[in-house]
Prior knowledge:
The structure holds 2 protein chains of 2 kinds. Chain A is mainly α. In chain A, 74% of the residues lie in helices and 3% in strands.
Amino acid sequence: MRQRFLNRINFTDIALGIIGVALVGLIVVGSFRTLAEGNYTTRQWLDFVVFGIAQGSIYALIALGYTLVYGILRMINFAHSEVFMAGSFTAYFAAAAMAKSGFLEANTFVAILILFGVGMVTSIIVGVLVERIAYRPLRRAPRLVPLITAIGASEVLKYVFKGLYGDQFKAYPEIEALKGSFTFGDFNITRIQVVVILSAALLMLGLYLYVQHTKVGKAMRAVSEDKDIAALMGINVDAIIVRTFVLGAALAGAAGILYALTFRQVNFFMGFFPGIKAFTAAVLGGIGNIPGAMVGGIFLGLFESVGPILFLDGLNVPAPYQLKDVIAFSMLVLVLLFRPSGILGERLSRSKA
Amino acid sequence: MTMLELDNIHTYYGNIHALKGISITVDKGEIVTLIGANGAGKTTTLRTITGLLKPRNGTVKLDGEDIARHKANDIVYKGIAMVPEGRGIFARLTVTENLDMGAYSRNSKTEYDTDIQRVFGLFPRLKERRNQIAGTLSGGEQQMLATGRALMAHPTLLLMDEPSMGLAPVLVELIFETIQQINKEGVTVLLVEQNALMALSIANRGYVLQSGMIVLQDSAEALKKDPTVQKAYLGME
Ligand SMILES: Nc1ncnc2c1ncn2[C@@H]1O[C@H](COP(=O)(O)OP(=O)(O)O)[C@@H](O)[C@H]1O
Ligand SMILES: [Mg+2]
């Protein structure tokens, strides 16, 4: 009995266990000391939280694209970060033109809708082209092949857009109506954060209802379980796959606009960090799992915004906030090590590949 | 009147020659069974009819039209539905959503309503569990669901791949009774079974498949009395 128990535990498990305990210990001690020192006011903590949620909403929108495509094709669409970039970068020209003509200030609401339209349509076109050109011909190939193609597609897209729009950062115009913030006691939220959180929430609700209740949404879920059986129902599997790419790309395009409104800088390389973080969020939530991607995105945003200060400041780590990218990537590695099925626990091994 | 006619079908998996010149006919209104040991090619035959596999040679004619090179997702629009081997339900969808997928090829809401009532009439258990996630159903209930889902497509020809597999005898009984009832309502049935005795007891005619070839074909009555069938498939000495 005992022998069998010992046999089941191997060296990797022990090493992982020790690392896990050490990390949790570090986080607990760090947080405790940070809070005990009281260097940050309630207001500052609330700011971190709001920033985290806004940032996390953007991650969540992008993460949904990874998860939707993974759910249906069991592949990581590494070109998705460029689908995001394409929408954001292209919409810059619309924003600049509308700023120049005065339309942006005169009709801000319509102008922002136009930005979303341009960003989403561009992302959809790029996303669908990638599927058609880079992935569909490889549908029956071993899984590693489309993965490599995806990385290739990502590189190609970056340099196509560099060629098209140049390698300079472009600054999105500032929008007067989006300046300023709302304050309730210690709680402070910028107008842009309100726009980001509300738009993301609306889009995610829309996606959820679409996938859950429409005929196409149900067909998507059926295709993600078994393509052959889905075809026997009369479902055109390729058409459903295209729709999935369209949905994911549309959300990435919208995320691109929200990102641009928040950070106001775009260039051909801008997809890299949000892309890899959204991928982390998707893995966190259990890749292939739609609510998981939403929760994972918000969680990562919060973790990244609150975590560095909370965990590291008390440990006297200098400039903890600059470590936020490190924290996000450590998180990806840790999740892959400890819970590859994600926090919501959809098991990869059990899903029909 | 001939409804389905397979003529000299050869199907391959890569280099594996799985069907070596199969010819089968199914007349309108019949129950025809295809029996054979594990690996004989029964599933491959059904997958070839539904377009999931393309034969290298031969024709699959439905009401005279060659459908062998049609896409799998067009076949259901021709009136063919399949209850796949191992049931193939969508485990993460609810019972109702599975039935909805069965009706994917249908457009009329009123017909959908009558069809779903018919399925719930045949399988009251499905009605009780209509909001349950299909993966949590028992084996028997999953078989009912797979059958009900196929019926939602309103097929004229129903293909069934080993519906009795892994079921308790009572449930096998129920499924076979249902097949007879569906057939009485006008649906032609091509039934693949390893449970040869049950299959021959409800079928009009049967084919015996062995290593990708039809080795015997006759009326169900005659096959039941055939010594080689009795020995190999009915477990009699
Ligand atoms: N996906 C596949 N790839 C290669 N060979 C297969 C595949 N599926 C079935 N076969 C082979 O084709 C033959 C017929 O299989 P099948 O039609 O599944 O038999 P049955 O349904 O009668 O048990 C078997 O020899 C089997 O090994
Ligand atoms: Mg079989």
